[in-house]
Write a structure and sequence with these properties.
Length: about 400
């Protein structure tokens, strides 16, 4: 039995047929324009012999072109024997294509899913977003990000935060994690900045050492405190590249490490008693509270007590700095909030086709999210300047 098409199917068939005919007509018109441009370039039409002739045709090559009516495939482009012919047609449509790609990139940076991006671009520009879209778009960012990545750091940065966010990447045969290493600085004027974003196969020592070395080569100076998780590669990089700089172990991660050894039914009470240690603003107070915690819980939870004793000194480094700064120096929570936004906007891609695309897009997202950092101070640095001027007070 013959199946009759629905009204919607008939309309869709007619629409597709019309679009195909329009693209065929556009292709014929463009090829005619290209031939006319070649004639003007040579000073003669095909097979025409004139005294003004400046060269010879040398066949054609094929290329695709994205236009307002969609993608025109296998466009025949004439070429001359000397290879000097340049057409204005491609420049004109490249600007149009660039506008489309800018819009697509903007959608990615806003966290619009790949499927929605494809649907929107196909509807508006009749251009289908293929598998290589992410790679192509993020390659466009290379030139834009290069000046930022190599810019000189002219101010001092007393506080430096180091951490990593993980993204899924296709490593050419399997899908694995890519550690995107991030450095955030608080400068001498009290403003936060994203200083560097780099990819590494894992949070290896070499990755963080290269990150810090790159910052130093760009002029990083005045660092007094590095804040990070208890990661051996970070600590080694700091000891090696910033040997006279203090290190603060993130207290949020530290408390999680301790509470990992506490039964679920006791966690809330134990966590509350633990938290007060790290809200103290004086060293003697914090250590007294830590000792009281140990006396209360060490026998019941010896592993948790051992973790606290081993890491307490590194977790209390922040107390050496002004009390007005301590809340923002004792953890990497600021980076965690930034990373949450990066994940939200990059999860739409799920798996990046390569390291370059992952790092470029993550960097662009971070710079977008932190655009307003320069509009408001993160810290009033006067207390730190006063402390350094009168270290005994």
């Amino acid at each position: 039995m013959t199946r009759h098409m629905s009204h919607q199917e008939v309309e869709e068939t007619v629409r597709v047929s019309m679009e195909e005919r329009i693209r065929e007509g556009m292709k014929a018109l463009l090829e005619q324009i290209l031939e006319e441009e070649m004639s003007q370039h040579l000073g003669a039409h095909r097979r025409e012999r004139t005294l003004e002739r400046r060269g010879e045709r040398n066949g054609h090559y094929q290329r695709d072109l994205i236009t307002p009516v969609g993608k025109i495939e296998q466009l025949h482009v004439p070429r001359d024997r000397e290879g000097e012919f340049l057409t204005e047609v491609f420049d004109r449509y490249q600007r149009m294509t660039g506008n489309v790609e800018e819009a697509v990139l903007e959608m990615y940076l806003q966290g619009v899913s790949t499927r929605k991006v494809a649907a929107i671009t196909e509807r508006l520009s009749h251009v289908t977003v293929g598998k290589d879209t992410v790679s192509r778009l993020t390659e466009r960012l290379e030139a834009e990000l290069a000046p930022w990545r190599t810019r000189r750091l002219s101010l001092a940065y007393p506080y430096l935060y180091l951490d990593a966010v993980y993204l899924k990447v296709n490593w050419g045969g399997y899908v694995g994690d890519l550690a995107v290493l991030v450095a955030i600085g608080v400068n001498a004027d009290g403003y936060r900045e994203v200083l560097a974003v780099e990819g590494a196969g894992g949070e290896r020592v070499e990755g963080y050492r290269n990150l810090v070395k790159g910052l130093l080569e760009r002029g990083l100076s005045g660092v007094e405190l590095v804040i990070s998780d208890d990661h051996d590669s970070i600590k080694t990089a700091v000891r090696t590249e910033l040997p006279r700089v203090a290190w603060q172990r993130c207290t949020v991660h530290f408390m999680r490490n301790i509470l990992a050894h506490i039964p679920a039914e006791d966690k809330l009470v134990v966590a509350a008693d633990l938290k007060v240690i790290f809200t103290a603003t004086r060293d003697e107070t914090a250590r007294r509270l830590a000792q009281e915690w140990l006396e209360r819980y060490a026998k019941r939870f010896p592993k948790a007590a051992a973790v606290l004793q081993r890491g307490l000194d590194d977790a209390l480094t922040f107390i050496r700095f002004p009390s007005a700064h301590q809340r923002l120096l004792r953890s990497t929570n600021g980076l965690e909030r930034l990373f949450e936004e990066v994940r939200r906007r990059t999860n739409v891609i799920r798996v990046f086709p390569g390291e370059t695309s992952a790092v470029n897009l993550a960097t662009a997202v971070m710079l977008r999210v932190t655009e307003d950092w320069g509009a408001r101070k993160y810290l009033d640095m006067a207390p730190l300047h006063a402390l350094r001027a009168n270290p005994q007070e």
